[in-house]
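Quick note —
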Amino acid sequence: MNPSSTISPRWALHTVAQTPAPKIGWLVVPTSDRPALLRRCLASYLGNAARFERRLEVLVIDDSREESNRRRNRALVARISRHGGAAITYAGPRERLALARDLAQGTGVPAELIAWAVAGGHGGFSGGAVRNFALLWLAGLPQLHVDDDTVCE
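Predicted structure written out below.
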């Protein structure tokens, strides 16, 4: 007896609704002290979106330790937003802490706990906090998270 002829996968037993997947509305790009890579990343994803006549909104979450890199990243986002026609939101440490304060006021959860969850600790890797921030700030919206060292072809 051929086992594959007698056992069907569970999904094969049910009719699956053929609804289209939601379009990606937000591109989330965490970055940390790599302005040149952020510029290349944004150019590639926004260029690809333009080629296929798609509109993306972009959230750049800056986790740079060096203030000079945060200034460069903020300036890059402003320049692309002005001249590239893309809607890009910049979220550095101030913006992440502001969300923590707003959430603490609205939920009663201690501000220090939320700040740790969305802004990370002091001086170490905070990749989880960066993604927590994006998930909370864009809650319920379709999003694609990519690293700043990726390109879209």
